[in-house]
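fwd from M.: "can u put these together and see what the complex looks like"

so here's what she sent:
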Amino acid sequence: AQSVTQPDIHITVSEGASLELRCNYSYGATPYLFWYVQSPGQGLQLLLKYFSGDTLVQGIKGFEAEFKRSQSSFNLRKPSVHWSDAAEYFCAVYGSNTGKLIFGQGTTLQVKP
Amino acid sequence: EAQVTQNPRYLITVTGKKLTVTCSQNMNHEYMSWYRQDPGLGLRQIYYSMNVEVTDKGDVPEGYKVSRKEKRNFPLILESPSPNQTSLYFCASSFPGQGSPLHFGNGTRLTVT
């Protein structure tokens, strides 16, 4: 069955430090993968997506993610975190055989000054 | 400005009192969907619509109804709300196809007492 797991519910990093948010998926074929960010009181905004090709994808706001088929992972990274990056982050997988977009449980990022 | 508009943003009601949450998009999107967001569960799909007069159940449709009489509108109806429907609700829309990112509204926080 199609599923997404974000192992970290809550992460705290210092401003300027690097960030990696983990995402593991379960899907039989090549998935379509997404990262969304939800700022407080807002809807979700697309950060980046992976369909095929280069396994390292660049997104908005300086984020990138790497697709690793062997590990069934699609981790989100940022070299230097800014206080404005504090938000909740969702990984999602689209299954072409199900026609559904499944979201992970979300990871809340707190940024320390 | 391209957007998905939900109303109201906040709603407190009592058990059994019918309510409707409206959703409207101005991007001419065929696909629209409703999600509920609960702590630790991420976003779960309630209903979706591939086009006018076409609606389908998502993962958690019980207790909800939808309609799609016009392309731009996709209201969510709770005929007899119960406390377990207290949640944060999001409407989203996109063009058809797995490559199209979802555009989200800002959410409706519903409390049923």
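replying to her w this: The two ends of chain A are 41 Å apart (CA to CA).
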